[in-house]
Structures are given as structure tokens and as C-alpha cells.
């Protein structure tokens, strides 16, 4: 399985649908990597661009296949999701906002 994680608007929609959370929930409540259900959904949504038939169970098996893979993918997925939210919803990051003051 290729592991390049990407979040377009469809991936974000699938993540929200799978978790029942809103973008506001995700940003205000944050994310605990120990929440494996959300974590696997986050990784899964970011991999859908390459395989629309991918299941969350397959992502879990993939993460189990190598020690530390889940943690590494969660870190990457979290960063990319935040960037995708900013891009999709026209939000500025903290550094960009501070530089314009």
C-alpha cells in the first residue's frame, strides 16, 4: 500500500462522515493519538485518494504490520489535515497571521 496521505475536500467529507465530528469539533477538542478509532479514520481518509475501496480495517492491518507505523502515520496525517483545513476553508496559519500585523 502506498502511504502518501492527502486531504482534498472529499477526504475531509469522508472523515467527518466516518467520525461524526465537525471541523470545529476537531479543532477545538483536539486529537488524542490513543483514540485509535479516530486515528485510523484519519489515516484512512487521507489514503482514499489512491483507493476509494480502502477500508478502515485494512488501514488497521497495515498499521499493525510494522512497529511504530501507526504513530508515524498519525503525525503525518495530523499535519496534513490541518493544512488541508486551512487551504479548504481559507484559514491563515499562526505565523502567516502574525507576519501581517
Please tell me about this protein's structure.
The chain is mainly alpha-helical and 101 residues long. It has one domain. The chain is 65% helix and 0% strand. α1 packs antiparallel against α3, α3 packs across α4 and α3 packs across α5. The longest helix has 21 residues. The protein is globular and about 35 Å long. The N and C termini lie far apart (44 Å). The mean pLDDT is 89.
Brief sketch in words of this structure:
The chain is 65% helix and 0% strand.
- The level of helicity is 55-70%
Q: Total number of β-strand segments?
A: 0
Gyration radius, rounded: 14 Å
Residue-averaged pLDDT:
89
Annotation keywords:
101 residues; mainly alpha; 65% helix; 0% strand
Question: What's the structural blueprint in terms of helices and strands?
Answer:
Elements: H1 9-19, H2 23-29, H3 36-47, H4 56-64, H5 69-89, H6 94-99
